[in-house]
Amino acid sequence: MAGARPLRVTLPSATVTLLLGWGHPLHVQSGPQDGASLGEWPAMIAGLQASPLLAGFRGAAFAVEIEFSPLGARRLLGTSLHHLAKAVVDPDEILGAGWTREATERLMAAPNWPQRWQILDSLLIPRLAGPPPPPVVAEAWHLLRTRDGAVSLSDLMAVTGLGSRRLQGLFRDHIGLPAQTVSRILRFHRTLAVASNGCGSLAELAVRGGYHDQAHMNRDFRALSGQTPGELCTIMERVPARGHGGHIQPFNDFGLRHQPRHQPRHQPRRQPGPPAVPAVSAEEGLA
Asked: Which one of 58, 62, 84, 121 is most buried, counting C-beta atoms within 10 A?
């Protein structure tokens, strides 16, 4: 980022994020309705989120953002993903004291980005030597992914042969969020992918997205993005259609410009830092 990057809405996704940066740190807020500060982060690990966040840079910065599948993150980090769910933490809390500083210094010193990718491989791949996830968890996760969340808890129980309590316990450990919440996130991203190829009517979009009805879709969109389906469709119509491209879902960082609608209800909870970035114009779009 050559200069300040105003706060943008980052949507919940079924991935765990590792951010390593230098220059101005990433400023994170809850929101967009709340707007409480979650601190300034030169580096961070963010677990699966169930609501949107706001994030931006107050000045020039470099950053590497790596997205892990939940099962990959569980294996690499060696900790229950429940501890990371709906949270943002310092990587040193998980990877060990001094890990972030060493990684960042090596990335800063590298002369080009291909060498930085090699450094990241050397730092992260050895950590994947831990045990793989239980086969039933891998099976349940694969089913959720391939069906874009259109799987009920009873379906997962039937496929895995596990009871509800045992299945949810495994999801808590290896995914971080309940199975039903993960299903909502994946279905939401499937609907965004459908909308990127033309929304049509909202009733049709609800059917194609796998919702019970339009009201069901409205509730999920509000909870996961702070936007209505109609508002998001207006934005999607200006974005070239694109497929999943091998990613878990294609709309991780939605890049919506944030226009505060009212004053935050809460005071900052940690690391308040300098004054907030002024509201930007109403122009919205995908990065």
From this structure: 84
Spatial distance between the Cα atoms of 158 and 135, rounded to a whole number of angstroms = 15
The residue assigned the tokens 């990877």 is 95
CA angle, 11 as apex, 210 and 194 as ends, to 5°?
A: 35
The stretches in the chain having pLDDT less than 50 are 241-251, 254-255, 258, 260-287
- Separation between Cα atoms, residue 120 and residue 150, nearest integer Å: 34
Please state whether 25 falls in left (phi above 0), alpha (psi between -120 and 50) or beta.
beta
**pTM for the structure as a whole:** 0.82
Cβ count within 10 A of residue 203: 12
**pLDDT, position 8:** 86
What is the CB-side half-sphere exposure of residue 225 using CA atoms within 13 A?
A: 26
- Report which residue type is found at 148: D
Report the alpha-carbon distance of residue 77 to residue 47 in Å, rounded.
Answer: 11
Query: Quick one: pLDDT at residue 138?
Result: 95
Burial letters for 104-118: b for 16+ Cβ neighbours within 10 Å, e otherwise? bebbeeeeeeeebee
Tell me how far the alpha carbon of residue 87 is from its chain's centroid.
11
Tell me how far apart the alpha carbons of residues 282 and 284 are, in angstroms, rounded to a whole number: 6
- pLDDT value at position 240? 52
Number of alpha helices (DSSP H) and beta strands (DSSP E) in the chain: 11, 9
